[in-house]
Amino acid sequence: MAQNFKSVTHCIFDMDGLLLDTETLYTKATQQILDKYGKTYTWEVKMTFMGLRHMEMCQRIVEIYELPLTAEEYSKLQREVNSKIMKNAPLLPGAERLLRHLHTHNIPFCLATSSGEEMVEIKITNHRELFKLFHHRVCGSTDPEVKQGKPAPDIFLIAASRFPDKPDPSKCLVFEDAPNGVKAGHSAGMQVVMVPDERVPLEMSALATQRLRSLEEFQPELYGLPPFKN
User: Which residues does the annotation mark as catalytic?
Assistant: First the structure.
């Protein structure tokens, strides 16, 4: 992991597993579907899916678990289960504090999530006021400009280009939890703060600028941003 921090002017946030604790709910939803086929959703498989766009993930699940379904049929099942349980997704520690801090200090920030627009709306049901603070959001599964999902850099480059002042990628700081997302941010030429599940092996953080256990540990001043007051 790199430790030479450079000053930034803009921040780009992933959502699932970073700001919202949806990964636990995703696991529950996926296992609920796989139960019908006597299959078990393992952590090893889940880790390779994190950060992928919706249909890519559906295709992989159907292939890996040899389900008698098309990716489209699996997608329909997943969406039905997700829409019921994702409304209750809680914020992860440190997320609200950091977003409000950046907003207070007029640091531009946006959302870059692999989720589709409709699913984002469901997940933020209880957090709408907070998510209104984002300058914009790029939803990888439904945004026509995002040709390739993470680990390709498309989503982060598009997210940066939609700020009014179109910052250079080197001036953008990405916040991610998934190895695929870290690869995408690094490929985009951006620094990446990784806040992974503790089970993610250390070597999968190699491309991250910094690995934290929680957003509560983030020190804005390392990147030339205003420090927290407390």
Answer: 14, 16
